[in-house]
């Protein structure tokens, strides 16, 4: 199969104006300002561990859903499968996100509750892996403070009272700190 040079193809396959109109059509829902993006989460650990995202989305589409979900579907996008944890997605309307929070969604015949994602979801973060057991969390904190940053340090994984040694360092910004 021959490769087509994209700039050359723009004028030949489709008229340039039509190409420009359809180029981003499929991602329009996601093209809203970041302050209008609300992260939502479906806690479905077993499903997200067992199935790929395309299979999960197909199951959601095939299942009979609540009126709340059906009416909200045009305003949700950017689904992400987090294996063993669940499915995160973005809602592009605060009022719709509020309606979805606490509502149910059916996936593979089981109902799951949709909830607003963590307050940390809008914050920039860095995951620290393989943190030595003897390294005190205060040392990590002091390191970032010396850079002029205000870190918040949490275990990367926590289930009940059990926590991982890996750490997530959160910063009160949506972008990578300049330091």
Automatic annotation (TrEMBL):
This is Uncharacterized protein.
């Amino acid at each position: 199969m021959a490769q087509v040079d994209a700039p050359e193809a723009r004028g030949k396959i489709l008229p340039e104006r039509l190409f420009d109109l359809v180029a981003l059509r499929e991602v329009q829902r996601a093209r809203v300002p970041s302050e209008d993006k609300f992260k939502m989460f479906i806690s479905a650990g077993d499903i997200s561990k067992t199935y790929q995202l395309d299979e999960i989305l197909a199951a959601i589409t095939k299942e009979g859903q609540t009126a709340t979900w059906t009416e909200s579907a045009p305003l949700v996008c950017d689904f992400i499968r987090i294996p063993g944890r669940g499915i995160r997605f973005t809602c592009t309307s605060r009022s719709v996100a509020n309606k979805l929070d606490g509502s149910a969604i059916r996936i593979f015949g089981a109902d799951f509750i949709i909830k607003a994602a963590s307050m940390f979801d809008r914050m920039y973060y860095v995951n620290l892996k393989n943190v030595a057991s003897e390294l005190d969390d205060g040392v990590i904190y002091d390191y970032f403070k010396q850079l002029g940053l205000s870190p918040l340090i949490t275990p990367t994984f926590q289930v009940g009272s059990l926590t991982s040694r890996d750490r997530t360092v959160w910063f009160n910004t949506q972008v990578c700190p300049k330091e």
